[in-house]
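Let's see one such:

===
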Amino acid sequence: MLLDILGGVIIFICILTLLYLFAIMPKMTNRHNMSPWIGRYYAHRGLHNSNNLAPENSMAAFKLAVEYGYGIELDVQLTKDRVPVIIHDYTVKRVCSASDATNQEQLPYLDKKVNELTLAQLQQLRLYQSNEQVPTLESVLHMVDGQVPLIIEFKVENHDTSVCNMSIPLLDQYKGVYCIESFNPLVLLWFKKNRPNVMRGQLSSNLIKDKEEGDKLTYYALSNLLLNFITRPDFIAYNHIHTNMLSYRLCRYLYQIPTFAWTIQSQSTLDTNRKWFDYFIFEKFIPE
């Protein structure tokens, strides 16, 4: 009787293990050629170095990255009039200021979300204390023009993946090397269905330990890459401070999927993480 129970427990554990390994399995066949990505570092939100001259996700920061030959990571979301623009936060308060502090009409914009402002309203603001505006995806693609690879993060706060629909006509015309990534698996699912040839990556971290606000069960699944069986990502982009996560290590070493580290902020951190990642997204220093 005891042996029967023990045997049942072992079978149950084996089944759970197989289901877990299946759940975290990334794309295993027809993988992308990674040669265009090898030998580069990737500037997080552009090569931003000054809130006065080249702030994050500004055209000035993107131009500097191109000048120095770095790939670029950038963030895309939609304005109220459904124009894809480059800005990280869902609200403009942290990164924007009124272009003219005496213009009272602009000040209420600072309390708005990006998707509550039209492009015209958004571009009345300035990034930090610079003269830089929030750029459009179209303008950035035109400027970069294939000179360096792009990592395009799609910012989707809920279930609305309209940013994918509005961005893809621009990306379809773009001749340079790019990939997409997102924390939201619905974005990866959209590209898997509508543009399966576009390289897609699952962004993740230990979201619970990071104390992100949101549904804990969803964050547990995302932190442990348990939705990979649905989205089948081509690569994983993971927070470098959480490389002890079992699911991440299995994806890298068992399934040998390409991995990107975010966001490396010193040369010593980069050197320490070379054994854990293939590619590196950096900021606040110049990699050697």
The first strand starts at residue 42 and ends at 44.
